[in-house]
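Chapter summary example: a protein plus pyridoxal-5'-phosphate.
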Amino acid sequence: MNPALSDLARRTGPPPISWLMATALARPGLVSLAAGFTDSETLPAGDMRQLLDGLLRPPGSSRAALQYGTTAGDPELRRLTAERLLASDGSKAAASCSPERVLISNGSQQMLYMLSEALCNPGDIVLVEDPTYFVYLGIVESHGLRARGVRLEKDGLDLKHLEQVLEQLKRAGELPRVKLLYLVSYFQNPTGATTSFEKKCAALDLLKRYERAAGHPLYLVEDAAYRELRFQGDDVNSALAAPGGSRRVALLGTYSKPFATGARVGFGVLPEPLHTAVVRIKGNHDFGTSNLLQQVLARALHSGRYARHVEFLRKRYSRKAGVMLAGMRRHFPEAAQWEMPQGGLYFWVRLPRSVKSGLRSRLFRQALEKNVLYVPGQLCYAKDPKRPKPNHEMRLSFGAASEGDIRKGLERLGAALAKGR
Ligand SMILES: Cc1ncc(COP(=O)(O)O)c(C=O)c1O
């Protein structure tokens, strides 16, 4: 490695998914059930064209949109974002849902990165779901952080395990290194699990109990990237509505998954001192997310186009999830297990422990030979000295693939499962 590179650059490896994406592109006949992309056919090209036209035609609004904005984001988009959250989370979240707390970012991904910069030093510990969003694990590695996994149950975090982990860290004198608990709370990437509101409240309580030993606040970073893509059941309140949530919860959301992934507009709702810290950091990153795109998004929200599009997406993903479910029932062996997600883009499939699913497994090779790709579950686990990474699961996405490709892909995967063991 070139000695000119910084420690951070040396720690930053290629994203595990880059190889999967390159493989998908290099094989035109391949069906990728791996990509976490949204459905390209649903992207709101017509809405965008009209919104841009409405914004850019009048000289006043076009000049304002084409100029730099403020680092924290377009005031109207911040106001509309706070208003939407208040409508979802109710009056208990009123202290958090103010425009002043909202900060607009380049997708929620940038917010996740900046929050890590604002809270963590190399060697610090973050608590994550086991398994978790693998791109976050890239941030963890790159910043020289350590991740400790907390097991998941059907309704989210295993609270007993969270307490055990906190207790172990306390006994080992490591609590002062712990900064945050990261939860992907709605239709989790990768498992599809949703954390109940009761569990969010209990997790916050637990963190609070250990703050004295930590010597500083312990934050709950709630990543609600998929919240709006619900196609079954009722919305669950975010942790902003939990007791103590207004002081200890950093909520991340996005306009990318539910509208236009390419627009890369996301947001955070942050308590102090995180808000000020992250605005300053963002000042150094880029002094503000694209003003033009923020104003388009504000217009999409204001005009009702956004809400209509989300409604349309929900129906679409509901249908595609149904197609995936039917395909798995038809083609997968009985020993394969999964839960039906209530939203989002993913199924998580558990195979018997003897069936390895990792990148070097026979199953993965067989799947590639049959021209179908999945995300090996192993990639979604943090390196954790307390357990080996499980290697018998896979994430399947019904986001990007067409219904026909989902059917085809599952038939191929079923054949690989029959052969690859
Ligand atoms: C759990 C989770 N959080 C955050 C993101 C980032 O999304 P965006 O930056 O488009 O808002 C993703 C994208 O796949 C995700 O799966």
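Key point: Residues 305-331 form the longest helix (27 residues).
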